[in-house]
């Protein structure tokens, strides 16, 4: 890697970490396009590298959110267990897919997610579970 590539990678890493912690994502929406468009990685290499990046960024972000009471441990546990199995299946599938097809699936996923987030939706009243521990009076009301 050139000095410029290292510098850009550090900046992208910082942005990935910040946005991952702010939005609760793994950061792939930032790191994968960066690795493909700037570093010239293949889709497969960018996805594999992004999965490695998720471990430390997710751990630090989850720790910071949990300190404020913003982690629900039971669903997190079950989603993690199920996610392990899904990751095995997904990884086996991804490495079998053609590079261009995989890239198109990734782009479609990102665009669909953006559409779902940006379209207007009816407001739903917050439940007691949505209130962080320090804001709840413990009455269950």
Question: Which features characterize this protein?
Answer:
single chain, 141 residues, mainly alpha, 5 helices, globular, disordered C terminus
Secondary-structure blueprint:
Elements: H1 3-23, H2 28-37, H3 43-66, H4 73-96, H5 99-118
Helix pairs in contact: 1-2, 1-3, 2-3
Your description of this structure?
This protein is mostly helical and 141 residues long. The chain has one domain (3-120). The chain is 70% helix and 0% strand. The protein has five helices and no strands. The chain has helices at residues 3-23, 28-37, 43-66, 73-96, 99-118. Helix 1 packs antiparallel against helix 2, helix 1 crosses helix 3 and helix 2 packs antiparallel against helix 3 (43-66). The longest helix is centred in the middle third of the chain and has 24 residues, at 43-66. It is globular. The protein starts with a helix and ends in a 23-residue tail after the last helix.
Content-based structural category: mainly alpha
Indicate the low-confidence ranges by residue numbers: 136-141
Cα end-to-end separation: 57 Å
Number of domains: 1
The topology string of helices and strands comes to: HHHHH
Biggest sheet statistics: none
Beta-strand percent range? under 5%
């Amino acid at each position: 890697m050139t000095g410029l590539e290292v510098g850009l990678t550090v900046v992208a890493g910082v942005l990935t970490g910040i946005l991952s912690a702010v939005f609760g994502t793994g950061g792939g929406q930032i790191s994968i396009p960066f690795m493909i468009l700037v570093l010239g990685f293949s889709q497969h290499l960018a996805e594999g590298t992004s999965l490695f990046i998720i471990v430390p960024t997710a751990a630090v972000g989850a720790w910071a959110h949990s300190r404020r009471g913003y982690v629900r441990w039971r669903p997190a546990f079950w989603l993690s267990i199920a996610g392990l199995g899904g990751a095995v299946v997904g990884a086996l599938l991804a490495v079998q897919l053609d590079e261009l097809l995989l890239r198109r699936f990734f782009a479609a996923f990102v665009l669909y997610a953006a559409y779902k987030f940006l379209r207007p939706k009816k407001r739903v009243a917050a439940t007691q579970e949505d209130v962080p521990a320090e804001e709840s009076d413990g009455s269950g009301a």
